[in-house]
Amino acid sequence: MKAVGIVSEYNPFHKGHALHVAATKNSLGKPVIAVMSGNFVQRGDFALLRKHARAEAAVRGGVDLVLELPAAQALLSAEGFASAAVGALAATGLVDTISYGSECGNTAALRELASVLLSYDFKAALQQELPRGESFARARQSALASLVGEEKAALLAEPNNILGVEYEKNCFVRGLNSFTIPRIGAAHDGETREGIASASRIREGIAADRDMTPYMTDSSSNILIREQLKGLAPARTALAERAILSRLRSMSEADFAPYDEGSEGLYRRFAVAAAECRSVEDLLQWVKTKRYAMARLRRMLMRIYLGLERYDSTVPYLRVLACNETGRALLKEMKTTALLPVITKPAEGRALEGTAKEAFAAECRCTDLYALACPIVLPGGSDWVTNPVIL
User: Fold this and answer.
1) Are 272 and 116 in contact (CB under 8 A)?
2) pTM listed for this prediction
3) What would the pLDDT profile of 207-252 be if each residue is shown by its tens digit?
């Protein structure tokens, strides 16, 4: 059977996510496979809840099968993140359509921008803008405006439109269909609206010890409470701050260089800040300039903490985090259709070969470092023994 793919983080899973899944199923009439960031999310932070808990909430909220996007790919720029996630969904051999939410809700408009971004004319225009010293995002929007006009280019001022265009680029390259719906309720990082809050607003409320369960699905809020009672949530950077600073202070300037994705000398600023700053936020503010978005700096910091030097947007295996009965049927088909190894039990990670085996082991180490950000520090090795959630 064919399926629809959703790129997700579900940090945490909330009512807006449930509406997106329901709208996708109602409109396309197909089961949903989500690829979800694991314990680390694209903004360069620890996920609020561990990956298996968030995957369980997603399946209870309507998703049929949840696959993991490893930290090495989750902590990439929007372009790399989208390429990795769509690539993983395509590798199932079952996904023929990518569904996503966007501020504009206009598939044709975002597809048009994607085609321009893939053109030679855009690459030439971007090369003219980059030397001006603005951030990459501003340079890209200015270059795009020179080709399609300010009004169309302004769509890239919204975060979900930005990711949507990246999904469209990958759909075009991979021959996949696409489907977008208008983002329902609250804007990204915005106020609550129509009874829906953004994931960032929910995280802020939880950090401030406010009751945010009215904005989450019942199952998601129950899972959050369960994880809190176990001392597993919420994960916070502050809890791992000394571990992060210890890692940074043990490094020489040359050790920072492999993590400078743009090879722009940013690593030197990190090396100096690591020796002088006494907190993660102080370090990020010291390193920050108008050229670098804070999310990029957070991703670089997290990759340093995790020791993820490789910037590879290819997911080397498909690890199952959770599924329902329909998801089990999809997995049965994937045994013959998948283009990558499918990991249904963590022990199968030991049987992988080459770079896939190395990547799986690296992800398990990342989970051990994630545990240091939880209220109760757990022993290492949990990723090798945690099975998928089967509902």
Assistant:
1) no
2) 0.93
3) 999 999 999 999 999 999 999 999 999 999 999 999 999 999 999 9
| One-letter identity of residue 24 | T
Dist. CA 340–CA 360, nearest whole Å: 13
Please say whether the beta carbons of 217 and 18 come within 8 A.
Answer: yes
Q: Do 33 and 342 touch, CB atoms closer than 8 A?
A: no
Q: Which amino acid is at 391?
A: L
CA nearest neighbour of 297 among 11, 77, 83: 77
Give the chain's count of helices (H) and strands (E): 18, 10
pLDDT in tens, 119-169: 898 888 888 887 877 777 788 888 888 888 888 888 888 888 999 999 999
Please say whether the beta carbons of 68 and 47 come within 8 A: no
Domain that holds residue 292: 237-306
Q: How far apart are CA 237 and CA 192, in angstroms?
A: 25
CB atoms within 10 A of CB 101: 22
Residues 104 and 227 in one domain: yes
The count of domains in the chain is 2
